[in-house]
Design brief:
The structure holds 2 protein chains of 2 kinds. Chain A is 76% helix and 0% strand. By secondary structure, chain A is mainly alpha-helical. Chain A has one domain: Helix Hairpins (Orthogonal Bundle), CATH 1.10.287. In chain A, helix 1 packs antiparallel against helix 2 and helix 2 runs antiparallel to helix 3. By secondary structure, chain B is mainly α. Classes of the chains: A mainly alpha, B mainly alpha. The interface between A and B is large, with 42 and 42 residues.
Chain lengths: 103, 490
């Protein structure tokens, strides 16, 4: 059962996933891997929502998860299109090679 | 009163956006019908918001209850209707300015106008939200549309680069935003903002989750308003995006993110709480926002001093203006929020006006954007130069332009809330900003024109310029009309 495990465990796991995702965003240079790290962050948030909803016996958090998933899907559609447009123009998806504008 | 009448602005804008997108398939090659349909949609939405603004508060309160059709997720009238009108106005001004610009860039597509409708719909959902879910959906609808619009010139490297940067950092910020919402949900057990507010007043919350959640939520929102230290995407995105879109993003987009800030701060932050944990946490967070506001305006104005490109200079100055606007959040009382409403309105006129002129002078593929391209503009195009000078004076905050009064109300609100040091920083940074605003005017009026100046077309943008300059002068001469009205909204 979900409730057999203390709630802190779920929160710690999701906080760890969130940190892993953020470190991935800050250190990786490949646009698609950065995007995967962002997805890990969003999924850790989903875990937080589901655990809170389960422990409080409230469904609002679980419904929010559906919306986060839908938004993540919309973001993926737009984001991959942007990466594709970048590849067509510059033949690279490494973000450190994309630096026409600075300062 | 029926709730669907109150929610008519939201229904209209969403309905028109979907209809306009479907019509693209049937309409053939002409772009004008979709453009006029979008203008019509924005104007009817603004009119219906104006109607809901005129309905008395008691009637609105009595017609909204948890069993109503939108289950208490939306609020109507008051500041939400006011900001609806601002967003629709920004959309109208942008669309009018865009046609000529897209024509000269040879890049006009019908989807552009529809995307602006979607962005406005997202912003309106933010200002109407009474639930963290609606707030999230609104912010995301707006942001995802902006990612597309920033990369609208998909064969231009700069535009695609700006879109990629905006997308990656925006999605990263979304992660922080939803994590903050999740912890706020865990702290209070509900997503409904009015319930969260009553639980915060009663102290019926999990204190640690609330403070961490609020901190993360503020990080996410600070990304969206481009406040220091989360501002680094803004100059690149504003430089690479199509010029009218830059004007739209930096005014309406910023105003929408600030409305989200207002909604959160209004319902959750309570520095006078009888519970010491809530009071200490709230005042610490307010202090952090105050530091960020001060750093934002100093950084934006100082870096703008050394820019060669006018578009990038105004991008940095727009970061500084986000700092001024955050002072209203720091004050966190109805006067501060009214100051934000006032400044968001006049900032819309001056910033969109300035970017429209940049768009008129700009030529295909990001040419003619430098300060030197403006030299002697007063001799070749006196009207454009005069209007640009008007917008620059207003952005610099020189009376009797409306920009002065916008700053004045925000500064007064911050002083009354006990943040004198922040106001001193704000005054110093707006003195710094004079240098580059006046610098552009010197280029236009005291330098000799270059010989090879290309032809300039104004087209429908002239309507935008007339509306925005009249708006600046009107609210500069009669500021009390708007500020009195705005202070009744919160």
């Amino acid at each position: 059962m979900l409730i057999d495990v203390p709630q802190e465990y779920y929160l710690i796991l999701s906080a760890m996933m969130f940190v892993i995702g953020s470190v991935g965003v800050l250190t990786r240079r490949n646009a698609i891997i950065i995007f995967m790290s962002i997805e890990i962050m969003l999924n850790s948030v989903n875990l937080t929502f589901v655990s809170f909803a389960a422990f409080m016996g409230d469904t609002a958090g679980q419904i929010f998860v559906f919306f986060v998933m839908a938004v993540a899907a919309a973001e993926a559609a737009v984001g991959l299109a942007i990466v594709l447009a970048l590849f067509r123009n510059k033949k690279t998806i490494y973000v450190d090679e994309v630096s026409l504008m600075k300062w | 009163m029926q709730e669907w009448i109150l929610s008519l602005p939201l229904i209209l804008i969403s309905g028109f956006a979907i209809i306009a997108m479907l019509l693209i398939v049937f309409i053939g090659r002409r772009n004008a019908p979709i453009m006029y349909l979008s203008l019509f949609a924005l104007i009817t939405t603004a009119l219906s918001s104006l109607y809901t603004l005129s309905i008395p508060n008691e009637i609105i309160k009595s017609s909204v209850n948890p069993d109503s059709i939108f289950a208490n997720m939306l609020i109507y009238g008051n500041y939400s209707a006011f900001f609806d009108i601002i967003f629709c106005l920004a959309g109208v001004l942008t669309i009018l300015a865009s046609q000529n610009y897209l024509h000269q860039e040879e890049y006009e597509h019908k989807e552009y106008y529809v995307l602006i409708l979607y962005a406005v719909a997202g912003m309106m959902f933010i200002s109407h939200s009474n639930n963290l879910l609606m707030l999230f959906i609104g912010i995301e609808t707006m942001s995802i549309t902006f990612y597309i619009l920033a990369g609208y010139f998909r064969f231009e490297e700069r535009s695609v680069e700006s879109s990629l940067k905006y997308f990656l950092l925006g999605a990263f910020a979304t992660g922080f935003l939803v994590y903050g919402i999740a912890l706020l949900y865990g702290a209070t057990g509900t997503l409904d903002l009015s319930l969260i507010n009553s639980k915060v007043i009663q102290g019926d919350i999990h204190y640690t989750y609330l403070i961490i959640g609020l901190g993360l939520l503020f990080i996410g929102l600070a990304f969206k308003v481009a406040a220091f230290p989360f501002h680094m995407w803004a100059p690149d995105v504003y430089e690479g995006a199509p010029t009218p879109i830059t004007g739209f993003m930096s005014t309406a987009g910023k105003a929408a993110a600030l409305v989200a800030f207002i909604i959160i701060a209004k319902n959750v932050i309570d520095i006078n709480s009888i519970y010491p944990e809530i009071a200490i946490g709230s005042s610490t967070l307010t202090m952090i926002v105050a530091f960020l506001a001060g750093a934002t305006m100093l950084l934006g104005n100082i870096v703008a001093l050394v820019q060669k490109s006018v578009k990038r200079m105004l991008a940095y100055s727009s970061i500084a203006h986000a700092g001024y606007l955050l002072m209203g959040i720091v004050a966190n009382n109805p006067r501060g929020w009214a100051g934000i409403a006032f400044y968001a309105t006049v900032y819309l006129f001056m910033q969109i006006g300035a970017f429209v002129i940049i768009g008129i002078i700009e030529k295909k593929s990001f040419k003619y954007l430098n300060l030197s391209d403006y030299s002697g503009l007063s001799k070749t195009k006196p009207a454009l130069a005069a209007l640009m000078a008007l917008f620059m004076f207003s952005l610099a905050g020189i009376p009797p332009m409306a920009g002065f009064f916008g700053k004045y109300y925000l500064f007064v609100a911050a002083i009354e809330a006990g943040y004198l040091w922040l106001t001193i920083i704000a005054v110093i940074s707006s003195i710094i900003s004079m240098y580059f605003y006046i610098g552009l005017i010197i280029y236009m009026y005291f330098n000799e024109p270059a010989d090879d100046r290309p032809q300039i077309n104004v087209g429908l943008s002239s309507i935008t310029l007339v509306i925005s300059s009249l708006g600046i002068l009107f609210f500069g001469i009669f500021p009390h009309l708007l500020i009195d009205f705005a202070s009744k909204l919160f």
